[in-house]
Amino acid sequence: MGKIAIFGGSFDPVHKSHIKIAELAIQLFNLEKLIFVLAYTPPHKIQQYAKVNDRICMLKLAATSLQKSEISLYEVKKQKVVYSYQTLDYFQGLYPSEEVNMLIGSDSLQDLQNWKNVDYIIKRYKIIVAKRAGIKIGTSTKYLNNSVFINNEIENISSEEIRRLIKGNYTSIISLVDKNVYNYIIQNKLYK
Known about the structure:
Layout: E1 3-9, H1 16-28, E2 33-38, H2 52-63, E3 69-72, H3 74-78, H4 84-94, E4 99-105, H5 106-111, H6 118-124, E5 126-132, E6 147-154, H7 159-168, H8 179-187
Parallel strand pairs: 1-2, 1-4, 2-3, 4-5, 5-6
Helix pairs in contact: 2-8
């Protein structure tokens, strides 16, 4: 039985920490495959800032050299809110003999109790958590004992912060995103 991890998100835009998290998960948990699942409309976010086609292009540019990874448009094709438990079930159906894991950041672990059907997720799937710098996980954090951690602390970059910085000028984000993503954002005048 191999291991697969599902890494869902808006990736609006995808940044270096997203890719580092994926890279470490593949290495540390000996994953057969890591699947980026681009959200069409995430249940916990009010809006998307870049069009879905732009987010797809940026994710492809950022993940192009990441071995054992692929991008799924499962949620995008639904063109509606798809909950994590539905996505995990879909991939478990596609890979019935594989162990399906969900990859999240420590910020998402803190909010996990608010996710739809989280108890169902916890019973059926393993949660891999990437520790983000500056985000403390207390011993009372719910679902802490149901999670395994990437012990390397990842730089705490947020897509929200990148979008805010772009309003000042594009060069302020050059160290936060892949150079091809950076060029794509500039060429397409995204987030201005």
